[in-house]
Amino acid sequence: MKVKKESFGQIDNQPIFSFTLLNDHGIEVSAINYGGIITKINVPDKNGVLENIVLGHDTLNDYIQDSSFLGAICGRVAGRIKDGSFELDGNTYNLAKNDNSNHLHGGINGFNKVVWNAETLEDGVRFSYVSPDGEEGYPGNVTVEVIYTLNNENELTIHYGAQSDQKTLLTLTNHSYFNLSGDLKRDVLDHTLTIKSNQFLELDHEFIPTGHYLNVENTPFDFRNENVIKSGTNSQHPQNVLVGNGYDDPFILDNNHENEVLLKDPESGRILTIETDEPAVVVYSGNSLQSEGNFRGVPSRQYLGICLETQAFPDAIHHSHFPSITLEKGQSYSSVTKYKFGVAGKESFNK
């Protein structure tokens, strides 16, 4: 295992570094301490060709200008909070509104837009940040750490940890856009997806959960058996049409740490397996990616990447039957998501 640290520019006189994790099979994961952003993941295809499988940029300024949470840590609360406000113990907290009248992924200057402290580890990098009381409207001083590690089993593990000195809300995720074709040669419509999920959350016209659980059976949301992404983008199901012809939906996971999510690209042979502690995965098929700008020279367009955001249910604070996202004073928040990279028909990668 190797970890390489390089300069990636600076913002407000604070240095930004890129940390590249490299295992013995040539797999590379790069991340920067601005937003904890994963900028690149290089993995081999069925012919051993190493290529990048996430959307990203080569310059810090591109990430500063980005509005798609590209590869970033999302928090304090991943997902939407209705009307940008909530109550805790009789106190009302008004949050930054960055999604019409709602709060999304931590706000205007959420964890994706801050400079994290960084510490190189033997097999990874530890990012840490102290979110001050009142940041984006949230109560409590919250100490957060996010650790990325890579091993020789070709597993990237993200461990999230936090503590607060006041009762507050917290659920974190990573917002990487995956495209297993390699270097964005194709969009993700012919990727296949398998999810161990019998139900998903119904959304209203602002993409906020209504509180109702919907069954996946006989719908384009049934990924219990392998199905192609374009089954949802071509669908007339009201929930597919609602989010812009595709997916932007929280799937309730039936299992944890049992190969819950499987993404494949049949042409390249690449496979991504995701396991998590979290109760849900939000599948976002890049419906709103604009045809403006580019990703390392590849023009941006709809469906160029797919996000698989492991997290708690969006807007959980307004639905008492959802798993809680309340973090008590002094309580430890901990969550682990593991991404395993593979190739169809092969047990392991050759060096």
UniProtKB/TrEMBL annotation:
<dbReference type="GO" id="GO:0016853">
    <property type="term" value="F:isomerase activity"/>
</dbReference>
<dbReference type="InterPro" id="IPR008183">
    <property type="entry name" value="Aldose_1/G6P_1-epimerase"/>
</dbReference>
<dbReference type="Pfam" id="PF01263">
    <property type="entry name" value="Aldose_epim"/>
</dbReference>
<dbReference type="InterPro" id="IPR047215">
    <property type="entry name" value="Galactose_mutarotase-like"/>
</dbReference>
<dbReference type="InterPro" id="IPR014718">
    <property type="entry name" value="GH-type_carb-bd"/>
</dbReference>
<comment type="similarity">
    <text>Belongs to the aldose epimerase family.</text>
</comment>
<keyword id="KW-0413">Isomerase</keyword>
<comment type="pathway">
    <text>Carbohydrate metabolism; hexose metabolism.</text>
</comment>
<protein>
    <recommendedName>
        <fullName>Aldose 1-epimerase</fullName>
        <ecNumber>5.1.3.3</ecNumber>
    </recommendedName>
</protein>
<keyword id="KW-0119">Carbohydrate metabolism</keyword>
<dbReference type="InterPro" id="IPR015443">
    <property type="entry name" value="Aldose_1-epimerase"/>
</dbReference>
<dbReference type="InterPro" id="IPR011013">
    <property type="entry name" value="Gal_mutarotase_sf_dom"/>
</dbReference>
